[in-house]
């Protein structure tokens, strides 16, 4: 039987209004053209469209999960923080950490987003499908138990994992390939021996009070969770081959050793080569390879149970194409969409080899 992927989505997520400004900040007095906030509805409208109309459309089964309830949220987040978000007046927009915008209606939309992740995870946990993906916004991986951060309010994956644990799940692994450090998930599981958290990200460090974690390699978990948090701060400019090697040589062995019952992917596409918020160079092909690897790892370690949850990805056109490529890899299909923006034919990834070649080429001049 052909492979199927269950997709969880509710159009209310388009109503989360992050406004406009100078990139992600307020308007600039010097510039006449106002940009959309990077975390905007348009990016996800394109993701939805490419899934509905692209080659994988025939392999997708669409569902809408119910909004997460208060008790679902409280399994990951503290009550006072949920109260604060819930109390936002209907006509007020709040800004957290300068760039994380919470507007009228955002509380229910964020509950709905968490609900899509929760429903996708339950679908797989209950054996209704092996593969599920939650298409949602706002993203979740920066949201910590006690605070919002980096456009995120509820940690969608954390809420989903906790709902499964309440129903008997013993262990899980999260691979976060969003270009930013998955600090919220790290914070939630830092002392937890059963939830392995792995984050591949550009080496951006902490970014203020809402993001005290640095994403450095020495943040390895604490107490009983020691060794169960793995940070992989990738060099700026890392591309397809770098991500594939790190996945094969570090990520996969760690997940194998943990033996999770279910594998979660914090599925951002902002490591793509055109992303305004990232400085990495993944192409559609690179994302396809990551999708394929995630699927193979899930097949090997946890009976194929794989749940992908949307995170960042801010290049309005290219992130959608990269998402399609990831899910083709997950489904074990051949790439069916040509890369509309590829201008790097091949990522050799080998600076050492390049230097050697140049040394040979210019041997006479180099002396
Ligand atoms: Zn990101």
A few lines on this structure:
35% of the residues lie in helices and 14% in strands. With 367 residues, it is α/β, with parallel strands linked by helices. It has a single domain (5-357), classed as Arginase, Chain A, CATH 3.40.800.20.
Features:
alpha/beta; binds zinc ion; 367 residues; 8-stranded parallel beta sheet; 12 strands; Arginase, Chain A
Written account of the structure:
- It is built from eleven helices and twelve strands.
- The chain has 367 residues and is an alpha/beta fold.
- It has one domain (5-357): Histone deacetylase domain (Arginase, Chain A).
- The strands form three sheets. Strands 4-1-7-12-11-8-9-10 form an eight-stranded parallel β-sheet, sandwiched between helices. It has a two-stranded antiparallel ribbon with strand order 2-3. A two-stranded antiparallel sheet has the order 5-6.
- A hairpin with a 3-residue loop joins strand 5 and strand 6 (100-102).
- Helix 1 (41-53) crosses helix 9 (318-331), helix 7 runs parallel beside helix 8 (284-301) and helix 8 packs parallel to helix 9 (318-331).
- The longest helix is centred in the first third of the chain and has 20 residues, at 106-125.
- It binds zinc ion.
